[in-house]
Amino acid sequence: MIFSNNYVIKEISFTNIANINSEIKQNLIGKSIHLINIDQITDSYLLDPHIEKVTIEKIYPNELYIKIDKYSNLALVTDLRTNTPIYYKLFKSGDIVKVNFSELNDNDIYGNSIIIENGPLANNIYGEFVNYFLLLRTADQSIITNFVLVGDRLTGIIGNLKIDFINPSNLGKKASAVYQRIKEPCPSESLTIDIDELLNEVIVICNI
Question: Which of 7, 56, 144, 191 is least buried, going by the fewest C-beta atoms within 10 A?
Fold first, then answer.
């Protein structure tokens, strides 16, 4: 039964594009479906930092179904520290991938954004932004934040609301404060969000 021609893989379906799809197809077509090592195939896909999860299903007698879930694009990063702007997409994994402006669609251009004007970037800065975007996405997917980073100074705009984040640290906690303030707006359209280092609590100041 293991070596029967009835159980030789003849078809492989992929739900998403990945660099190794053609290699996987070339290596597995003609092999016994019973001898396929699912864990080994999964590990090969997960070497790609843009892939979050892979599910492989054997469809007897002779097909494989490979479901590829990629990390979602959270924001467009524009780096202005060079002569010409450099564009990146920020993914849920915390990785950024360089793209050409011509490759961007309306969702990229008018969605969440981070503009880097000058200065060196702190370690794990993109992880901080991921925490921020994921928390707000869970709370309300319609909230779009446009960040500007000048050195270590971070500001942002949500609609007509201008926010001084002071710096790009503890953005997960600051995101919770942003959401609360959107639901209970300040009298003005400007606020400052900081962290009390001693109490490790968020401070929200409605600017006048």
Answer: 144
80-89, 130-139, 195-204: the lowest-pLDDT one: 195-204
* Residue ranges covered by each domain of the chain: 5-70, 73-206
- pTM of the predicted protein model: 0.75
Helix H or strand E encompassing 149: strand 146-150
Domain 5-70 CATH assignment equals 1.20.1250.20: no
pLDDT tens profile 3-56: 678 899 999 999 999 999 999 999 999 999 999 999 999 999 998 878 889 999
Which pLDDT score is estimated for 49? 76
Q: How far is CA 41 from CA 13, 19, 119, 172, in A?
A: 14, 13, 42, 34
Tokens encoding 159: 């609609």
Q: Which residues contact 180 (CB under 8 A, 6 or more apart)?
A: 204
